[in-house]
Amino acid sequence: MSFRGLVQGVFRQSMRQFSMSSARAGSKVVVIGAAGGIGQPLSLLLKNSPLVSELALYDIVHTPGVGADLSHIETPAKVTAHMGKDQLAAALKGATAVVIPAGVPRKPGMTRDDLFKTNATIVLNIADACAQVCPQACLLIITNPVNSTVPIAAQVLKTRNVFDPRKVFGVTTLDIVRSNTFISAAKGLQPERVQCPVIGGHAGETIIPLTSQCTPAVSFQQAELEALTKRIQFGGDEVVKAKAGAGSATLSMAYAGARFTFALLNALSGKQNIVECAYVKCDEKEFGVPFFSSPLVLGRNGVEKFRGVGKLSDYEKKLVEKAIPELKGSIKKGIEFADAEMKKRM
Question: Residue 65: pLDDT band by 50, 70, 90 thresholds?
Fold first, then answer.
């Protein structure tokens, strides 16, 4: 087998079914923050996918170099590079999906909330531009703190009268990826066979892995379950510490971001029975908060159906009860920030 064939084979196997369908005509994906630690490997994965016909890269620096580099790869996706505020609209025009990993990464000792002010402003500005240039596009938000940045984007779009709750996603896929990886290691299973849903939010104790609903079924002693849950919840801290100030989870986040993007693009093109967890606008009466991550059926317009959280164990119920107050605070903080900033613009 040729080196090219070997690389493509490994890539497609690692992405499983998510990048195997043909793209619908005109599937343009925009990566905001394409020159960053997540943005570059994410863009590489997207460039290799047949689901992407056009890949628009945007950042405030270095985008032309990243674009030139990716454009030499022998796959069909057309690459365009855009840099600076004046080129944002051109990057967004005609977008099917806008993936947003832009922002300041965490350093040792920092929480996702420490990043709030800088990253909240970035997401607000991007969402406002999307509202005016590509209001029908799906927004896939990776920028932390996701528990707040997704409500910010939703509020901006609502203020501009273009909010579609089916099309704004907080990408929590890395929590699922970590759950699958850690569970498979603990039980000696093949990682690609393990599927563990994760609900709640995307920060610390708001991350709630539903090990009771894992496929294949697994069981743990209570102490082991608590340790596993904590590792999943604070897996990002593990990476930040290991990188010793050199960054946060970039490669695994890029993989997770690509996995969710491929799942969504497949659904938008008509592929059936695609289920992914994501942090989205939900029924507050059902979930206790206006934004929550849970298993979703994706379809041609984004979120097609909420699958619900299913039957929870007593331990998982306690995790949800503990997470709700923190989620409420993060959501409120994001909405208040967006309202204050948009008031200045309207």
Answer: very high
CA 78 – CA 197 distance, rounded (Å): 34
Q: How far apart are CA 103 and CA 145, in angstroms?
A: 10
SS3 120: helix
Q: Which residues contact 182 (CB under 8 A, 6 or more apart)?
A: 228, 231, 232, 235
Q: How far apart are CA 121 and CA 140, in angstroms?
A: 16
pLDDT at 20: 52
Say what the pLDDT of residue 106 is.
66
- State yes or no: pLDDT of 257 exceeds 70: yes
Q: What is the distance between the alpha carbons of residues 215 and 200, in angstroms, rounded to a whole number?
A: 19
Q: pLDDT for 27-56, tens place per residue?
A: 999 999 999 999 999 999 999 999 999 999
Burial of 63 (0-12, 13-18, 19+ CB in 10 A): buried
Q: What is the Cα–Cα distance from 210 to 61, expressed in whole angstroms?
A: 40
- Amino acid type, 222: Q
Q: What angle do CA 279, 283, 285 make, to 5 degrees?
A: 125
Which of the following is catalytic: 62, 72, 82, 202?
A: 202
- 211 and 191 within one domain: yes
Confidence of residue 105 (pLDDT cuts 50, 70, 90): confident
Rounded (5°) CA angle 10-194-280? 95
User: Could you tell me the residue range of the domain that residue 55 belongs to?
Assistant: 3-170
Residues 195 and 162 in one domain: no
Task: Please say if the pLDDT value at position 2 is more than 60.
Answer: no
Neighbours of 259 (CB within 10 A): 22
| CATH classification at residue 97 | 3.40.50.720
Q: Give the integer Cα–Cα distance in Å for 53 and 96.
A: 10
62 is catalytic: no
